[in-house]
Amino acid sequence: MPRTIINARPLPTGRPPERVRLKRIHLEEAFDALDTDVLLCAPRDDRSAGYYGIARFTQLDPELSDPNFMLVRLEEFLSFLRPVPLLHDGLPFEEAAQGNNGSLL
């Protein structure tokens, strides 16, 4: 089960890029996520904003053109049938999926 979310704009084909640029301030989290499955999320300004698939986070490389960033390699992509929206009834999806007692609906 994925425990890390990566904000990665999908390609026009709906697939994630093979590599995603991350800010270097997330280096520790990136090392913790190596060789695990990650949940992919299209940014809020993307037409298909939301969670759209799972991929294996397999490699971490320096971004040679900018030392403030690193590159994450994604493999074994599995797409959802349709994106899961970030908001539901104006609430973040994670909050909207909880009942009054905190349980998942």
Description:
With 105 residues, the protein is mainly β. Helix content is 10%, strand content 47%. It contains two helices and seven strands; from the N terminus they run ββαβββββα. It has a five-stranded mixed β-sheet with strand order 1-3-4-5-2. Strand 4 and strand 5 form a beta hairpin. The chain is globular. The two termini are 19 Å apart. The model has no long low-confidence stretch (mean pLDDT 80).
Distance between the termini: 19 Å
Shape: globular
Question: Going across the major beta sheet, what is the strand order?
Answer: 1-3-4-5-2
Low-confidence sequence ranges: none
Strand content: over 45%
Number of helices: 2
Topology:
Elements: E1 4-7, E2 19-23, H1 27-33, E3 36-42, E4 50-62, E5 69-84, E6 87-88, E7 91-92, H2 93-96
Give me some keywords for this one.
7 strands, 105 residues, two-stranded antiparallel sheet, five-stranded mixed sheet
